Amino acid sequence: MPLTPEQQAEIDAQRAAPRQTLRAVSEGMEAHLYRPREVLDHGFVRVIDYMGDDSAIVQAARVSYGAGTKHVSNDEGLIRYLMRHWHSTPFEMCEVKFHVKLPVFVARQWIRHRTANVNEYSARYSILDREFYIPAPDALAAQSTTNNQGRGAVLEGAEAERVLEMLKSDAGRAYDHYEAMLSQDGQQGLARELARMNLPANVYTQWYWKTDLHNLFHFLRLRADAHAQYEIRVYAEAICEMVRDWVPFAYAAFEDYRMGGATLSAKALDCVRRMLKGEEVTQETSGMSKGEWREFEGVIG
Fold this sequence. Notes:
- There is one protein chain.
- The chain is of the alpha+beta class and 301 residues long.
- 46% of the residues lie in helices and 14% in strands.
- The chain contains 13 helices and 7 strands.
- The strands form 2 sheets. The chain has a 5-stranded antiparallel sheet with strand order 1-2-3-7-4.
- It is flat.
- The protein starts with a helix and ends with a helix.
């Protein structure tokens, strides 16, 4: 299980002791605060703290004294305008801090988003738990034949069993050796900072990850996309549900303009205009490469 009974008891105690505040509060995010959302087989993501809400975005854009200067409908319209025209600074006025438990190989992909503050569990000072990500059978897939960084057909039968057995046995053996190398039972042992190098990339780590809403939206646009790797996408999807409740106006605009929208190049826009005039446009007459044309066809259906 992602949480021990002691950890769950600590979370319950935190949620049972609310405090009065003069800060802006998002009722939607308050419902998520501290509670872990289970992800993969041993992972989770939970909100530790947050600052701001939809009104904070509007307040920053207007540089106003507080709420009540405009109607809510105008606030929503302003947020959509800001999103539509890529005015990112007001969204940076909202921040959120997550506690995430995730496999190391997912963390290495996640850390590519360098616009956050991160503090990771240290295997130099502490011993990592014997917890590994072992994919569910329907997540075991062969290499894609058309995409060098994607998945193809799901493995089945004896092949799936063979791969699962190797993943489990290799992870267990590596951890057995990790434990054996550490200083214990009277032996001098190897330093933790060196012993950790023998652990596999599917061992679980944890970190606190704090970012602003603008950069969080960038993370979600890439990692909650259908083309993102499954193991990081499920974390992004869990975060999406929290953000939707935290800043509903901003998230709706994000879904519309970023997740559901598309950016067209000047050549692509020219092709659309020609098509609207009744002209038959092909890849050869579009001025685009085959790859660009294929992506363009995907956008316009």
